[in-house]
Amino acid sequence: MPYELPPLPYDYAALEPTIDEQTMRIHHDKHHQAYVDNVNKALDGTEWDGKPIEQVLDNLDLIPEDKRMVVRNNGGGHANHSLFWEIMKPGGGGSPSGALASAIDDAFGGVDDLKAAINDAGVKRFGSGWTWLLWDGTGLEVRSTPNQDSPLMDGHVPLLGIDVWEHAYYLKYQNRRPDYLAAWWDVVNWDEVGRRFDAR
Question: What does the DSSP assignment read for 24-50?
């Protein structure tokens, strides 16, 4: 069964003023839809057709070479954005709680230090990509990836990822990526990030 574009869990304008309605419409309906269409086309008729995207990305070396880059870019884009919509919510922000909060304190010294590390990795990502909080199997780690690469490709569990492609922020923030990253924490859905941490 081919992949489908997941619906936004809130209205297009729900993340205003942090992320504007027009950006959300273009980002979700155009960019994410294109990733879904392209990965479906690449996997159509192969043994990987209909497999969970996490399984596909964890086994890129087994994807036929002529399809591998298309699947890497578009399958990664589908997985990354499917997470991105879920880890944001209207009226978000605040601080994590429970086991995630304790793990963040242990690994980074506190949520403010975590935010600083994630923002720094996002600012320093040259060109397009993502900045992540992930579980590497033994602990929490901050990392950035180029293009639509996903921590899933290394067998890691993405917990929180911020899209730093220009299409994610350019209409409102233009070239001010640091301002976008600083503002993004106003819409973070710590409950969902915590759920992902608990389920790792």
Answer: HHIIIIIIIHHHHHHHHHHHTTSTTTT
